[in-house]
Description:
The complex is a heterodimer of chains A (320) and B (267).
Chain A: H1 2-27, H2 32-57, H3 65-83, H4 92-115, H5 120-139, E1 150-151, H6 159-177, H7 180-190, H8 192-197, H9 202-228, E2 230-231, H10 238-251, H11 256-272, H12 280-294, H13 314-317
Antiparallel strand pairs in A: 1-2
Helix pairs in contact in A: 1-6, 2-6, 2-9, 2-10, 2-11, 3-4, 3-5, 3-9, 4-9, 6-9, 7-9, 10-11, 10-12
Chain B: H1 2-13, E1 17-26, E2 29-39, E3 44-48, H2 55-62, E4 70-75, E5 78-79, H3 85-91, E6 93-95, H4 108-114, H5 124-128, H6 132-151, H7 167-179, E7 185-189, H8 197-213, E8 217-221, H9 225-231, E9 234-239, E10 242-247, H10 249-253, H11 256-262
Parallel strand pairs in B: 3-8, 3-9, 6-7, 7-8
Antiparallel strand pairs in B: 1-2, 1-4, 4-5, 9-10
Bound molecules: adenosine-5'-diphosphate and magnesium ion (MG).
Amino acid sequence: MSTLRKYLPLKGAAAAVFILALAVSRYGLLDNYIQLILMLIGINLILTLSLNLINGYMGEFSVGHAGFMAAGAYVSSILSVKVLAACAPFWAFPCAVLAGGAAAGAVGLVVAVPSFKTRGDYLAIVTLAFSMIVKSVIENIDAVGGPRGFLGMEKLTTLPWVCFWVIVTVWIIRNFIYSRFGRGILAVREDEIAAELTGVNTRNVKMLAFVVSSFFAGVAGGLYAHLLQYISPGTFDIIKSTEMLVMVYLGGVGSIAGSIMGATAYTVLLEALRPLGVWRMAVMPLLLILLMIFRPRGIMGFREARWLVPGSERDGGVKR
Amino acid sequence: MSAAVNGAVRAATAPALELRGVTHHFGGLRALCGVDLTVAPGELAGIIGPNGAGKTTVFNLITGVYKPSKGNILFNGADITGLRSSAITSMGIARTFQNIRLFKELTVLDNVRAAHYARMKVNPLEALFHAGRHRAEEKRVTEQSRALLDKFGLGALAGEYSRNLPYGLQRRLEILRAAATGPSFMLLDEPAAGMHPGEVEQLMAFILELKRELALTVLLIEHQMRLVMGMCTHIVVLDFGMVIADGPPEQVRSDPKVREAYMGSAR
Ligand SMILES: Nc1ncnc2c1ncn2[C@@H]1O[C@H](COP(=O)(O)OP(=O)(O)O)[C@@H](O)[C@H]1O
Ligand SMILES: [Mg+2]
């Protein structure tokens, strides 16, 4: 009963936001440009949470998350153009996105394997190499347009759908973090050997973290593809991975609230700087440099907003 | 049928831990050479020996951090040589480290809860979707962890980051974290290192209490002879990777080889 009361506000807020998103999109309460920005914030938030799981909570350093995103984007697009297009009921789109996530998750499982033996800088290089492999594989498959890219998706990504996936992502990632597996990846971050010796099967928790993380990167890819209606291998290059890094390290490593701030601030900033033209892309690396110097853990580094912490876990789980 | 009965009888009388001819090389360096070692159930045994004798290496081999170059390690009669560390821990062997290795950025409570990992049964899907079984298990583990901390004097600090604890309490927490894995056997690597004499007394009392409460078999490393002599009922002396004495404290103390090994470092 008391748990119910503790959870209700957050669930209620999620429901309210979702209904609001439905209303906005149904009755055009906001103009299309604002809606587009909101959708980009949502997609970026999913990406940020996905990367934060690996880089913040688990303390590894992936620079190849664009590869997972690409896998999700291509698989869901191919599905929705070539398989589902003819008879598309409303649930076809979430299924395509789900399939994109699942495909990315499978790729994540493969990338997890080197992480058993490799850490830090070396694992970073492995993830970078992996994202380059994904890119060149896509470039060499003519059936999906090769380097020219792939199009034909309908614009199925709407504000309510983005909202739905954001809520799912926040909910599942939070559940993950406050579970035995979540404490497992935190323990891996703190001291991998001690973690293994206190009974945490580090191989299993790493695998799980990579699968969950890449699944959501894939979901974001699917949403992105059905928003822009065009994807190409170039969409998912190192710049995309770097953007995710900036959002994670801007908002704060190891924090859901930080991820929300980072994704929002970065997306809005990038839009606000549009008049700068190509120069705006110089802002991003500059931001990264300043961050690393002045606030290496980001705005919320390792701290969580109270309303995002499950009631049973507040005050370090010590509330009596 | 009689084989099963025999097996059960043997398991009941088997040593809790047994090393048989364990040899270990680090590259060209031979850290351990043909070590035989037996610890009976319920014992409080000690390993002593000068720095670099190979004591920590013995622990690393038992807990699967390294796989021995030669020899076998048996736990309650089962061969555990070469198993994964987490598997060994979940069979009931827990340990601490010579240099404290807490999860520094986690709270005291979470250090202990993390150590319940191997005993928890919930699968990833139940955890990700916040299933009832997951919530119930979380609640149970949190309560058990708090009870453990309360009982051994860290309850008031449960919400503190473990890096903020004073050194003596960090040692204590590390031992409690090991206890939270649900062990029947505990390996303590120089638990008294870096402590004042007064603190050492307290720590030893704490270890004895924990041992009694959890019905543990304990094997501890100490390089100050004085400490182990008072506590342990069984002492193994290592020098240059070899066992040079093995027996009750009085016997070990009067052994000329031990005196020789300890020349200069004896206190
Ligand atoms: N990982 C390692 N790599 C190489 N040599 C090691 C390693 N661990 C320990 N040694 C060496 O093995 C010997 C025994 O070390 P150790 O078991 O730590 O001794 P003790 O704990 O008795 O002081 C030492 O000579 C040490 O330098
Ligand atoms: Mg040592």
